[in-house]
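Fold sample X.
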Amino acid sequence: MKKAAVGLSGGVDSACAAYLLLEQGYDVMGIILRLKPGDLADSDIADAKRIADFLGIELKVLDRRELFKKEVIDPFASEYLSGRTPNPCIECNKAVKFGAMLDFALENGCDCVATGHYARIEEKDGRFLLKRSESAKDQSYFLYRLSQFQLAHALFPLENAEKSAVREKALKAGLPVAEKRDSLEICFVPNDDYAAYLASLGVTSPPGDFIGVDGKILGTHKGIINYTVGQRKGLGAFGKPMFVTSISAENNTVTIGENGSQYSRRLVADKLNWIAADNPTEPFGAQVKIRFRAKEQPALVIPEANGTATVIFDEPQRSVTPGQSAVFYDGDTVMGGGRIISVSD
């Protein structure tokens, strides 16, 4: 019988993942990570304890706030100051959930870490492949930075399940968090107000110029951390709808343009992680996803000698955003991905 450490978040997905593993005969230990300060963490930890008590499993509470600050919060702030819009969940999965938590699990006699993610892992010819879930809630996008070692020691019990079926299973099982609402926000940002959160950390940026796509000054912005590519609301009045098309930390400018100007056909990505093969060197076709809620789009991916990749889409894409991730798919298989660092027509 294998022993699995389940990362309990206090929510229904991870609770149901633990329940399913017990049904399958696993020896299960629960782990909840204390990553957030005060009440934000205490409520989730209390729910995790209720889940563990109900399931009759051991629960370990790991305080990894220092690591979380170093690997997730500090880069989150740095990216905004650099004019990029980060996705902290991707960094957390790599460094914390399948980093520190997996290390602890293996050190304490577990064979793997399981989470409530909606994704699949398949082994083929000695290689572990990350696959898209058939569920509408597929979360493979958030997991593209996992290494072969991490994938080899990961379990996703929910795999292809639809969220409605997971909640129904939890209700029938009597899980104490079966009706708990899902969190749709960044877990450490209160009220989903990232600018206020950054200000609470002492992270601010000075006002600067709104400029048009022709370089002409059009007005004054409130600081680059308050904007993201594609944004329309909160820009002020310009006599017609305007959209953020780019942000320059070096010049402290926010470029805005009319509808249509926010489309791009080419991007460059760094911090590449390859899953389906080791460091491809030849161009290949792929379906590329540029944000979690975007539909994958056909493109040519060109690995570069400097460790970046250039992506050229068949058709221009709306609001390709530096700081977000471009993830490359071959059908249901995640080939790899990287952080978007530049965009061009």
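Fold sample Y, listed below.
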Amino acid sequence: MKLSFTKMHGCGNNYIYFNCFDQTVPNPEELSVRLSEPHFGIGGDGIILISPSDKADAQMRIFNADGSEGKMCGNGIRCVGKYLYDNGMTGGRTTVKVDTLSGVKTLELAVKDGKMLSARVDMGAAILAPQDIPVDMEGDSVIGAPLVVDEKVYHITCVSMGNPHCVIFLTEDIDGLDLARIGPKFEHHALFPERVNTEFVNVLPDGSLKMRVWERGSGETWACGTGACAVGVAAVLMGYAAKDEDITVHLRGGDLTVRYTDETVFMTGAATTVFKGEIEI
């Protein structure tokens, strides 16, 4: 059986995309593990299925590199918007709706010469209630709370953007972190019943934020859109940034712009098509 695919990335957060309007992808959990492997597969952070939806222009389903299904991916949804527009599936409209496990998200596309260059995504309201993130702590929110991991005290701020995030602001340069060692200790900590994505952040002199991210099910990735949103929200909650102003977040794969308002969180960034191909499974 042969499947057509498109390799795309948003700030280096790269997935293998399958158009399921005209083909069926069997066993996506197993296929994601196989194809994400860089030496014997295509290589990537997972696979994303673009399928018909009865309440949006398309539905996206995300499968991480370990086969687990994710609820939402901010970089992935921009690539879905680009795929739909560039392939003539929006009727030329630059406002696109995508159905996810975290609800329907609206994208405003910036286009040039018939191609989408970037998108502003309405990511929905930030979720701060611990039971809804989920994180096993009491209270109305988790902001700067101490947590001991590997005999070190970290101060965590927890946010859900459709998936759970644990944000940690550090004074030491995050470039020197052994993320492969410390990341799994947060991901599988008993405090997080559904595991967690963890962002380690430096506040730079100009007020912008530099982050590295350990994603549940994928390990360290070059970018995480929902993670950048969570970092922007956490920065406001911790007093490092202002609400309803653009916040620049520097990721390993590029920059995203986040704006946290009383009603929602907006994320703006580029999306890139790398190549198209066909694989026999």
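Sample Y note: The chain is about 15% helix and 40% strand.
Also: The chain has a mean pLDDT of 97.
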